[in-house]
């Protein structure tokens, strides 16, 4: 069966270009069982979509949506496909949590929630008339004007998932400069996280379950990309890289045995590894580590169920600095009910922490999370009830509806002040020179813009300039607010 998978254009400037990992996995599986699959990433492809449909003649179109950012383009391609009589299925994080709203569109026939590999396989059997739609787990659809949702599918063993078939994409378009790498790409080696943070969709999407891919699969993919495309860096996009130290040690051993001289970065949790463990990771090529701290308030830590060991925060960053691993610390401000004093505690920790890079995001209530349910039930937050509402959804880079007790302008000044500090830090990168991170960010942004083609160069360039101007303004124009938070 001819299957067309689409990653819609987000229509906005992006510093980093992620390869579409979810669609790659689905496409690899569908190819493995004998289907003819084409993957179109409309963030980098400017091909005429109608022409693609006419040439490829797909029997179904699958569209992936991680957030509402790609909603406009997803509806556009779905309409084109639907008008040609081709059934359309949506999947990804956003449709999984908003399936009823998505199915209100006349151009969407099915929504797959949670993982899509085996659900899509069975849906193809429905399209071919070989299976009853009611038997497909983790599938939503319309029947006699009503929206139906079948029972959840149990999580798959990731050993049953295929090794990624990178011939589905133009790999060169996704390779980028990052922290000493000239050709870095994103990969995944696990899914989910065992934690239950109340602001995170993991509790809904992955049921607070962590599953590890076999290390041999990951090594084989790295080897393929290194040998065929010169890959020299991997950023593991997993919510949590590993939960067992033995898996980390096994991966490091396999890297060395295969003589894969690459750098890699991970996302991990404070207290997971000792200094000795990080030294082993460094010796195998680990050069950066991301930590979600989220708040400097012990009270807020308990409220959001983060529950990390506060006493290990500062020592962890000091230890990694000694080893030579670049660190990234991530925080969120503006939680529901958060006070000025609580955010001051976060600012204080941000100033003390010796992370190379710090990121500060604005709290956004995400459907399916505990905090989202709380603010909706309390009447503080009005949920989206239509696709039009979803298209206006504000992401974590800007303040949407401020649910905290902190003035909105204060939140903007705090975030932008730390963004500016990161841009201009002397020790943000290995070069130990000021503005190096800013220059690398600009270079990465230009790379992403160029990949989209010359037509969009000025449009995306303007968006990038606007973002830079926003950060500069709020980090410099309000000295009284900065003084209030001792910035």
Total DSSP helices: 19
| Strand residue percentage | 15-25%
Q: Which structural class fits the helix and strand makeup?
A: alpha/beta
Strand neighbour order, sheet with most strands: 2-1-3-4-5-6-7
N- and C-termini, Cα separation: 59 Å
Profile the largest sheet.
Answer: 7 strands, mixed
Rg over C-alpha atoms, rounded to the nearest angstrom: 23 Å
> Which stretches are poorly predicted, pLDDT < 50 over at least 5 residues?
none
Fraction of residues in helix: 40-55%
Sum up the overall morphology in one term: globular
Instruction: Determine the mean pLDDT.
Output: 90
Number of strands: 16
Note down, in words, how this protein is organized:
- There is one protein chain.
- With 487 residues, the chain is an alpha/beta fold.
- The protein is built from 19 helices and 16 strands.
- The protein has helices at 21-32, 49-56, 71-83, 93-97, 99-102, 117-127, 202-205, 215-229, 245-257, 275-284, 298-303, 313-323, 340-352, 370-377, 387-391, 408-424, 436-451, 457-476, 479-484, and strands at 2-7, 36-41, 60-64, 88-91, 110-112, 139-143, 146-149, 176-178, 181-187, 190-191, 211-212, 233-236, 263-268, 286-294, 326-333, 357-362.
- Helix 1 crosses helix 6 (117-127), helix 9 (245-257) packs parallel to helix 10 (275-284) and helix 16 packs across helix 18.
- The N and C termini lie far apart (59 Å).
């Amino acid at each position: 069966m001819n299957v067309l998978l689409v990653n819609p254009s987000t229509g906005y400037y992006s510093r980093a270009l992620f390869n579409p990992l979810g669609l790659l996995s689905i496409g690899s599986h569908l190819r493995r069982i004998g289907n003819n699959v084409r993957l179109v990433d409309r963030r980098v492809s400017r091909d005429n979509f109608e022409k693609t449909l006419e040439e490829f003649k797909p029997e179904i179109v699958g569209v992936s949506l991680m957030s509402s950012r790609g909603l406009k383009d997803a509806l556009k391609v779905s309409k084109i496909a639907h008008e040609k009589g081709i059934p359309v299925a949506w999947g990804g994080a956003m449709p999984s949590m908003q399936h009823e709203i998505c199915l209100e569109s006349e151009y969407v026939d099915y929504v797959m929630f949670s993982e899509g590999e085996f659900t899509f396989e069975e849906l193809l059997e429905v399209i071919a008339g070989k299976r009853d739609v009611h038997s497909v787990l983790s599938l939503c659809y319309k029947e006699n004007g009503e929206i139906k949702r079948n029972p959840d599918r149990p999580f798959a063993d990731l050993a049953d998932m295929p090794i990624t078939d990178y011939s589905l994409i133009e790999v060169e378009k996704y390779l980028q400069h990052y922290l000493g790498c000239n050709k870095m790409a994103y990969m995944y080696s696990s899914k989910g996280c065992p934690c239950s943070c109340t602001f995170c969709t993991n509790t809904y999407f992955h049921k607070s379950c962590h599953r590890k891919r076999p290390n041999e699969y990951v090594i084989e993919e790295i080897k393929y990309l290194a040998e065929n495309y010169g890959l020299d860096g991997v950023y593991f996009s997993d919510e949590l890289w590993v939960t067992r130290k033995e898996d980390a040690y096994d991966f490091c051993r396999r890297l060395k045995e295969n003589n894969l001289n690459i750098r890699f970065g991970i996302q991990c949790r404070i207290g997971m590894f000792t200094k000795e463990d990080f030294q082993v990771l460094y010796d195998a090529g680990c050069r950066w580590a991301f930590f979600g701290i989220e708040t400097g308030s012990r009270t807020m830590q308990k409220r959001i169920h983060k529950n990390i060991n506060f006493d290990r925060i500062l020592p962890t960053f000091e230890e990694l600095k000694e080893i030579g691993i670049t660190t990234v610390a991530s925080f969120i401000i503006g939680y529901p009910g958060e006070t000025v004093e609580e955010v001051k505690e976060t600012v204080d920790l941000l100033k003390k922490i010796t992370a190379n890079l710090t990121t500060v995001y604005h709290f956004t209530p995400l459907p399916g999370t505990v905090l989202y349910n709380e603010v909706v039930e309390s009447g503080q937050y009005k949920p989206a009830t239509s696709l039009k509402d979803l298209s206006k959804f504000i992401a974590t880079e800007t303040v949407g509806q401020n649910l905290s007790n902190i003035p909105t302008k204060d939140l903007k000044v705090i975030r932008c002040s730390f963004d500016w500090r990161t841009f201009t830090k002397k020790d943000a990168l290995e070069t130990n020179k000021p503005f190096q991170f800013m220059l690398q960010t600009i270079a990465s942004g230009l790379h992403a813009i160029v990949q989209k083609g010359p037509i969009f160069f000025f449009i995306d360039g303007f968006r990038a300039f606007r973002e830079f101007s926003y950060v500069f303004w709020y980090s410099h124009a309000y000295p009284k607010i900065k003084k209030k938070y001792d910035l």
